[in-house]
């Protein structure tokens, strides 16, 4: 490249110094060099060599040289541009550069009176491709070595339209453009029915993975909407050798399937094996054999009416393998993991990335150095952190089904059911979806913008938030009156396999059932008690039905027993972690939501839905539900949010000891399971169906409340309630915690001789029965450190900045006992990974505040 450019510069030198012998000799030397085929490069580097040779031939009046240069330019043009106007290089930025360079070359031909090559018309189509490749934000899609930019310099009606938000020029003829060179550009519109910058914009790439200025990005997808690049590419960084350059050009730096530990072949040709573009949807299918012995089939479906992106990945190999479906967030986007996916947030709103199939392991990497993960190019030799979202599975032939967009429960429920059927992943879109789902229209932009009289809230994919707009009528908060349905859920001995342990817990559960049979149900409330029991515990089903029947005469609430099955492959994503997770996998997301949906409860459309839970060995006293409903009814005067989580401050701790049972009437800083609830008004029913009661936060603090308010859900702590929840403690629980560290006040202590007399003692008629009159508070901000072991690695994360602000500096030490195994220096990063961590380690976090004061907090052992 430099030799061709230098040749042209030397030719220009003739106009400055004249035909000096040394200069003419240098020009001849350059002719000899450029005439040698072995010196020629490919792509634009070769182009500049051909142009340089052409200029040399013209200046030296050497027709033979000129003819050779013209033939090379003609041959290169045939290879550089196809009949759709797509350039051979794998970068949109270089499509622009090549367009400018080739027009300059044609101008040189025009000035010499030489006809342009027959294929010159292909160049006329290039601006339309660049217009399609321009996002609604006005910048190029980041494909290959592209960090941004646009085609503003081109005087073409299509590019003028896309760089002026439709104010000038003319829009292209279609909203979808499929280019054989390996590019798909899909958008929801050109600003006709919503603001131009708010249109949804999706890209997908395929083709040869060794294109000049291209990356190993076959099958990679990006997604933008509402002016935000939610899922983006990582850019170019620069052209030297570095870990960052390898990351942005390699497989790990793109939104595709990555197989850790395996090499992706650069000479792979990712195929587009099928595509369909209709008024209702766009459907693309890719076949990728870049990993030895593995075939990846990716299907990308955009539903126009629903404005949703569906990505289906099937990874096939001869042996079990670990595969990760990766998504890089845009620079302005923050994320957090939900039960079945991730919530993405930006100043202009939120989006969801939801897993619809299986139970993949979720992770978020950011600014990770070893190996590189969670980075993007921010300029020449500049990088910045972004969230890298990952769904990962280790199994034979893993499959991923991911939905990107706003919350759409109708589509989600349909796909979760449909994708379980054999052959569904290959069905035509018209058969995979009903006509009703394909035709349904998303709300117009003006209808989804909350005004001052509205509460902008968020729905939820399993256990997480999804944008919804709920308008509050002046003078009334939705849900402050009307009937309620309270659903109380219990999972019996979920993951427990030992028969003797099951027998012990069933005896305890019988006391739980007895306590529930005595619970009073307030007027205007329908209470449903749902008991989940797995099919491998069928020997307990007759006894369970008998126990429920025995209490039937005194039972004031409806009961429903739901039998579920454990997956045949177990719970590979939950093989390590907190003991409660191992013993209760179906209390974890996303499985807990699917249990609730399997219950198929018929709930009146105009009822507020309250979701609660009680463990299979704890107790409710007769007034517990009255207390909760009273607190909920009072809460409406203390919050403007129609949906909220509520916890009752006071409860009873019952310590089973050798000499009897010691009962403490306490206030606690933790809202215990059985003493808290989610509340959703009728118009948010779809959200409520997927917010599990186990997910009501134990810690209700100012910083957690802000997080939930960002989702459209308030948090309230009800002070002064009459305790009606009994938390049973027998030694220690699974996590070896007594909860005593969370007691803020002890109001009374009493004892009974045995567990069998406990319920009668606490429920005796002589005890006061009036409903309490309490108040609402929220606890001060707190922070914690969370750790997780995956194989030999320990990842850590802290929410310290949400509690103390952004001015804190943090250091993390990996400890085994008191020995420091590894550590980080003080910095701003709140998460990371310690590699090859020995067993039995914990992470200690040191916090340095802005006033230079220091404190620390330590994690549990993993």
The percent range for strand residues is 25-35%
How large is the count of helical segments? 20
Q: What portion of residues is helical? A: 10-25%
Number of strands: 42
Strand line-up in the sheet with most strands: 4-8-9-10-11-20-15-14-13
| Rg, nearest Å | 32 Å
Q: Which regions are unreliable across 5 or more consecutive residues at pLDDT < 50?
A: 443-481, 766-770
Question: What is the CA–CA distance across the termini?
Answer: 56 Å
On the 0-100 scale, what is the average pLDDT?
88
Largest sheet: 9 strands, antiparallel
Structural class: alpha+beta
Global geometry: elongated
Question: What labels would you give this structure?
Answer:
862 residues; alpha+beta; 9-stranded antiparallel sheet; 8-stranded mixed sheet; 20 helices; 30% strand
Describe this structure in words.
With 862 residues, this protein is α+β, with helices and mostly antiparallel strands. Helices cover 24% and strands 30% of the residues. It contains 20 helices and 42 strands. It has a 9-stranded antiparallel sheet, with no helix packed on it. An 8-stranded mixed sheet has the order 25-24-23-26-31-28-32-35, with helices on both faces. Strands 1-2-3-5-6 form a 5-stranded antiparallel sheet, with no helix packed on it. A hairpin with a 6-residue loop joins strand 21 and strand 22. Helix 1 (2-17) packs antiparallel against helix 2, helix 1 (2-17) runs parallel beside helix 3 and helix 3 packs antiparallel against helix 4.
């Amino acid at each position: 490249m430099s030799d061709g450019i230098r040749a042209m510069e030397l030719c220009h030198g003739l106009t400055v110094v004249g035909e000096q012998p040394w200069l003419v000799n240098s020009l001849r030397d350059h002719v000899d060099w450029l005439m040698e085929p072995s010196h020629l490069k490919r792509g634009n580097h070769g182009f500049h060599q051909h142009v340089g040779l052409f200029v040399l031939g013209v200046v030296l009046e050497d027709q033979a040289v000129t003819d050779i240069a013209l033939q090379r330019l003609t041959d290169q043009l045939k290879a550089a541009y196809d009949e759709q106007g797509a350039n051979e290089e794998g970068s949109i930025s270089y499509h622009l550069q090549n367009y400018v360079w080739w027009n300059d070359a044609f101008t040189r031909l025009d000035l010499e009176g030489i006809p342009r090559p027959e294929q010159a018309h292909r160049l006329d189509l290039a601006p339309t491709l660049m217009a399609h490749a321009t996002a609604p934000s006005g910048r190029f899609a980041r494909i290959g070595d592209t960090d941004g930019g646009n085609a503003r310099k081109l005087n073409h009606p299509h590019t003028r339209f896309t760089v002026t938000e439709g104010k000038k020029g003319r829009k292209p003829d279609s909203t979808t453009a499929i280019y054989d060179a390996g590019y798909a550009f899909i958008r929801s519109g050109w600003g006709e029915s919503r603001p131009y910058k708010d249109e949804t914009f999706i890209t997908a790439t395929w083709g040869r993975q060794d294109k000049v200025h291209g990356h190993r990005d076959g099958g990679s997808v990006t997604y933008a909407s509402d002016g935000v690049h939610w899922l983006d590419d990582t850019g170019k960084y620069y052209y030297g050798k570095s870990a960052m350059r390898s990351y942005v050009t390699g497989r790990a730096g793109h939104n595709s399937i990555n197989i850790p530990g395996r090499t992706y072949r650069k000479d792979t040709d990712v195929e587009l094996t099928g595509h369909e573009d209709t008024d209702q949807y766009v459907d693309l299918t890719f076949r990728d054999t870049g990993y030895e012995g593995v075939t990846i089939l990716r299907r990308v479906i955009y539903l126009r009416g629903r404005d949703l992106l569906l990505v289906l990945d099937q990874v096939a190999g001869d042996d079990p393998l670990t595969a990760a479906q990766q998504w890089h967030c845009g620079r302005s986007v923050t994320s957090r993991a939900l039960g079945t996916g991730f919530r993405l947030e930006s100043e202009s709103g939120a989006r969801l990335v939801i897993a619809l199939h299986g139970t993949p392991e979720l992770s978020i990497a950011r600014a990770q150095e070893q190996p590189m993960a969670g980075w993007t190019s921010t300029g020449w030799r500049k990088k910045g952190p972004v969230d890298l979202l990952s769904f990962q599975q280790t199994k034979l032939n893993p499959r991923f089904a991911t939905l990107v967009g706003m919350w759409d429960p109708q589509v989600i429920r349909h796909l979760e059911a449909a994708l379980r059927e054999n052959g569904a992943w290959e069905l035509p879109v018209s058969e995979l979806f009903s006509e009703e789902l394909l035709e349904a229209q998303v709300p117009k932009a003006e209808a989804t913008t909350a005004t001052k009289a509205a509460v902008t809230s968020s729905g939820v994919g399993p256990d997480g938030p999804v944008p919804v707009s709920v308008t509050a009528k002046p003078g009334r908060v939705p849900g402050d009156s009307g009937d309620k349905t309270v659903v109380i859920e219990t999972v019996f001995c979920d993951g427990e396999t030992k028969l003797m342990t099951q027998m012990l817990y069933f005896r305890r559960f019988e006391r739980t059932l007895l306590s529930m049979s005595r619970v009073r149900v307030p007027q205007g409330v329908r209470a449903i008690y749902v008991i989940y029991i797995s099919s491998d515990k069928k020997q307990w089903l007759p006894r369970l039905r008998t126990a429920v029947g025995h209490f039937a005469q005194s039972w004031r609430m409806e009961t429903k027993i739901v039998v579920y099955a454990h997956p045949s492959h177990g719970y590979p994503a939950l093989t390590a972690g907190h003991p409660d997770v191992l013993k209760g996998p179906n209390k974890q997301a996303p499985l807990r939501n699917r249990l609730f949906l399997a219950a198929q409860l018929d709930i009146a459309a105009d009822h507020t839905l309250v979701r609660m839970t009680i463990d299979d060995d704890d107790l409710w006293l007769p007034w517990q539900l009255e207390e909760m409903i009273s607190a909920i009814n009072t809460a409406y005067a203390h919050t403007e949010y129609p949906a909220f989580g509520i916890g009752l401050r006071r409860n009873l701790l019952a310590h089973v000891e050798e000499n009897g049972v010691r009962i403490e009437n306490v206030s606690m800083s933790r809202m215990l399971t059985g003493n808290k609830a989610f509340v959703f008004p009728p118009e948010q029913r779809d959200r409520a169906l997927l917010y599990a009661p186990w997910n009501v936060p134990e810690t209700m603090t100012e910083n957690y409340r802000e997080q939930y308010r960002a989702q459209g859900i308030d948090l309230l702590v009800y002070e002064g309630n009459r305790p009606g929840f009994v938390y049973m403690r027998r030694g220690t629980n699974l996590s070896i915690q007594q909860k005593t560290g969370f007691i803020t006040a002890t109001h009374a202590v009493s004892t009974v001789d045995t567990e069998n007399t406990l319920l009668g003692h606490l429920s005796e008629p002589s005890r006061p029965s009036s409903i309490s009159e309490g108040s609402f508070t929220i606890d001060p901000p707190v922070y914690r450190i969370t750790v997780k072991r995956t194989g030999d690695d320990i990842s850590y994360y802290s929410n310290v900045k949400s509690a103390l602000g952004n001015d804190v500096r943090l250091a993390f030490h990996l400890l085994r006992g008191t020995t420091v195994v590894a550590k980080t220096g003080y910095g701003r990063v709140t998460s990371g990974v310690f590699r090859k961590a020995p067993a039995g380690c914990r992470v200690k976090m040191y916090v340095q505040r802005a006033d230079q004061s220091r404190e620390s907090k330590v994690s549990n052992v993993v």
